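Input.
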Amino acid sequence: MIDIDRLRKVFRSALGLADDVDVDGLAYQSIDKWDSLAHMTLVAAIEDEFGVMIDTDDVLAMSSFTKARELMERLSG
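Output.
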């Protein structure tokens, strides 16, 4: 089980969002700040924060906060 609040903080930080922004429903390119460059920054931030390596297929499939949470639960499980 991962710390969902930590994942939320990583999303907010990597995407340059305010601390009170709800990221649970966020999807790739649903906001201007989550473009392809920000996606790679987000992946690197998640890897650093949780000490994991995300493979290319998972990077491409990580199209929302929900998908990122599912991925992290799988990697930590």
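The helical segments are 4-14, 36-50, 56-61, 65-76.
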